[in-house]
Amino acid sequence: MSGIFNSSIGRKFAMALSAFFLMIFLLQHFAINILSVFSPEAFNNTSHFMGTFWIVQYIFQPILILGVIFHFVMGMVLEVRNRNARKIAYAKNNGNANSTWMSRNMIYTGGAILLFLGLHFYDFWLPEINTKYIQGDMSGLLPDGNYRYFEELQHKFVDVWRVALYCLAFVFLSLHLLHGFSSAFQSVGANNKYTRGLKGFGKAYAIIIPLGFIFIALYHHFNY
Amino acid sequence: MKLTLKIWRQKNADTKGKLVDYQIDGIDGDMSFLEMLDVLNGQLINKGEEPVAFDHDCREGICGSCSLFINGEAHGPDRLVTTCQLHMRMFKDGDTIHIEPFRATAFPVIKDLVVDRGSFDRVQHAGGFISVNTSGKTVDANTIPVNKHDADMSFMAATCIGCGACVASCKNSSAMLFVSAKVSQFALLPQGKIEATERVLNMVKQMDEEGFGNCTNTGACEVECPKGISLENIARMNREYLSATFKG
After folding, report:
1. Hey, are the CB atoms on A9 and B238 less than 8 Å from each other?
2. A193 touches chain B (CB under 8 A)
3. How many CB atoms lie within 10 A of CB B196?
4. How far is B47 from chain A (nearest CA, A)?
5. Which H or E run contains B97?
6. What is the pLDDT of residue B140?
7. Which of B201, B203, B200 is nearest to B187 (CA)?
8. Which of B12, B56, B123, B144 has its CA 20 to 30 A from that of A17?
9. Looking at the domain covering B118-247, what would its CATH class be?
10. What is the percent of chain B where pLDDT is above 90?
11. What value does the mean pLDDT take over residues A61-70?
């Protein structure tokens, strides 16, 4: 048991578990963000709850950050090991004949998502930490007495270049998920009569969720 | 058919290799790929040059000896065939064909297109067997009931010829399809259940020690496998391994 993460299958299993966790988080993130389109009030209330509830802040948030770090670090470790497994490349390798572009380039789509997370943390997470834990303002209120979350969100999507970067990042997220969703199930040993349906569901998830995030960014850009 | 061949030439394991161009004419579409190489070697020998070394044995697609990475694919562009069953009709007059050895750190090149696939043998030795009492009281396997589905799945896994196309095709040089087929063919049968825990742990340990890469589920191995070994075997091995690990 102790050596499981030193084995190739153990590492795959660990990657899959962290992927499941991140995919569930992504769904929850989307569910909250889409509220900003339909009801700014509901978005404000939910954001305030998520931003101040101690279980979310002190338990889920650190687990999430560790999950993200683990997924990327393990991805890098696997990439280095895999490159060492073939030190001389083929002069001609027709990868398109037997596998999808997404499955062969997870490290690059993952790297693009990592860069995006840097921007995303700079835009939202660091200002949140500054307001709440450095300035000590846990009220979530603007001087006019309204919650600040919806207005902050709208402000971020004024800049067309930021919106373009967000949209591009969500395209990379979609490409990553198009392989990652079904791959995670295969890694935990789930390949059975439900696999075909699961792959279909995975493709829908990989397209609908990033497309939804793109819609949210564009909606706020054009409606501010 | 007139062809240009770009063939990997490497004197031995310690020297660097390179692609060398050869022109060949008079190739018939009904020739097998290995027969085409035989023709080339005949020409090279007549010219007093070193013939191209390549692995082959049965030439019937069952021994797993032939390899070759042809135009970017293990065993060439056809499906469900080994290199010896690949026919020249798959190519057109005037084509340029790249011929390289199966590349993986765990498959070091011995000479030209010949690689050492002894790592597969060592993985097999680590657990790819069942222990049967042969003292004269051996129970006939046919007397042990096995359900049809499991018997079929086991047989399909057992059709793996251990050629290494899975490793050659995988961008990570992972041997998971081969090892999973060898684990599955026993794991599905009652005779294989007794040593199931040790088998999967030992074979995966040996696979990792040989320097094969980690599977990232691209599925290239399944597509290029000449025997159509399914990715279901990898999922089964993952379950077997996780179950064996958590059992302690």
Report:
1. yes
2. no
3. 18
4. 27
5. strand B96-100
6. 85
7. B200
8. B123
9. mainly alpha
10. 93
11. 96
Task: State the pLDDT at residue B248.
Answer: 67
Chain A nearest C-alpha distance from B116 (Å) = 14
Q: Report the CATH fold assignment for A7-84+102-223.
A: 3 helical TM bundles of succinate and fumarate reductases (1.20.1300)
Contacts of A4 in chain B (CB under 8 A): 242, 245
Q: Where are the domains of chain B?
A: 3-111, 118-247
CA proximity to A141, closest of A133, A150, A130: A150
* A12: nearest CB among B212, B214, B231: B214
CATH number of B3-111: 3.10.20.30
The interface pTM score, or ipTM, of the predicted complex is 0.94
Average pLDDT over residues B140-151: 92
**pLDDT, tens digit (0-9, with 9 covering 90-100), for B163-184:** 999 999 999 999 999 999 999 9
* pLDDT number for residue B129: 94
Per the model's pLDDT, the better-predicted residue between A150 and A1 turns out to be A150
For residues B197 and B110, the answer to whether their CB atoms sit within 8 Å is: no
For residues B102-107, average pLDDT? 98
Answer yes or no: same fold for B3-111 and B118-247. no
